Amino acid sequence: MNEMFCDIGVCSANKQGEQLCGDFVEIVNLEDGSKIIVLADGMGSGVKASILSILTSKILSTMMANNLSIEECVNTMIETLPICKVRKIAYSTFTLVHVHDHQVADIIQYDNPHLILLRDGKHVEYNQITEIIKDRKIFKSQIQLKENDIMVLMSDGVLYASEGKILDLGWHRDEVIHFLELTQDVDFSAKTISAMLLNESLSHYGNHPGDDVTVCTIKMRKRKSLNLLIGPPENPDDVEKMMRFFFSRDGYHIVCGGTTSKLASEYLRKPIQMDNTYMGENIPPTAKLEGVDIVSEGTITIAQVLEYAKDYNEMNSLYSEWTYRKDGASQIARLLFEDASDITLFVGRAENPAHRYSDEKITFQHKMKLIENLKEQLEIMGKKVKVDYF
């Protein structure tokens, strides 16, 4: 397994009054492990711009995935896109990044704000070669990637922020770079970086964006494993096997559920100590167990983690909650969303007798559905997720 992976986070906001975004980001995972990321910005706004950007990103990513040249890609894009009746051009700008083996990034840019590269928290210039294709000026670059390198792609709505609102001029590239440098933290995920830049851009618009605004961040990170155990096995004879598999794996270890944590305690021959220091409004307290990173209650806590995950994959508006709080759900969310790349869920199928007559929605079927939904949301984040049932 390659030690590096692409952490990719996208955040968008529609132009004020528009229901559709004129920007679109397409991410393609190839069989050889490489990735193609295209951020396209369609001319204008609304339905027309949305169609243009989707077509552009789909055409470029599909053709590049089939090893066609950039000349063929651009020619096809120009011939395929609908023509503007007023300007007589088929117009959509784009930024394309092809990451090979998590070590090299080929970058192709046309009329979008140029990609910003951060290394060790500081802006780094990179070489660009200009090529004219069908009267279009295309910029081509190749970057040798290092751990924690950050590539920020954006639509021009970011740079036009505040025009006609608070300031007389737009938010310039140098100011965007300065903001990114000031706010960098080695632990921030790509999604968090995108959300922070988007929110800052929207604040310059007075939260009434005059254009579609999209940020796509690619961060090169080391792979980290996380193992989450929830529920005892269906067959009590499998407890030893389940615990042995769980604790033999490298990475973080999270144990969820009262019965499950008791079994883990017995397996490790270590005592559980309750920790009532940090509690959310509706989140049960955590506990401490040597050899385990987080010990929490089960279904209620995971249900809250799932809500955070759904929000994270959309606007990430609850970021300030789970990032700073220290209850069990927030702690688990931080490790799952921002630290882990490879996640194994160890799920026990035993039904808790206490839940059979409970008024709460914590039945066995509900727990299984929670796990399925959480897996789905984590995969949307780009995580590798495996579920082992016992």
Describe this structure in words.
Helices cover about 35% and strands about 30% of the residues. The protein is of the alpha+beta class and about 400 residues long. The protein folds into 2 domains: about 5-220, Phosphatase 2c, domain 1; about 225-390, no CATH class. A 6-stranded antiparallel sheet has the order 2-3-4-5-9-8. It has a 5-stranded antiparallel sheet with strand order 1-11-10-6-7. It comes from Breznakia pachnodae. This is PPM-type phosphatase domain-containing protein. Pfam families: SpoIIE (PF07228). Keywords: Hydrolase.
Helix content: 25-40%
The poorly predicted ranges are none
| Count of discrete domains | 2
Strand order of the largest sheet: 2-3-4-5-9-8
The CATH topology name of the largest domain reads Phosphatase 2c, domain 1
The portion of residues forming beta strands comes to: 25-35%
Series of H and E elements: EEEHHEEEEEEEHHHEEHEHEEEHHHEHE
CATH architectural grouping of the largest domain: 4-Layer Sandwich
CATH superfamily caption of the largest domain: PPM-type phosphatase domain
Q: Span from first to last CA?
A: 26 Å
What gyration radius follows from the Cα positions, in whole Å? 24 Å
Shape: elongated
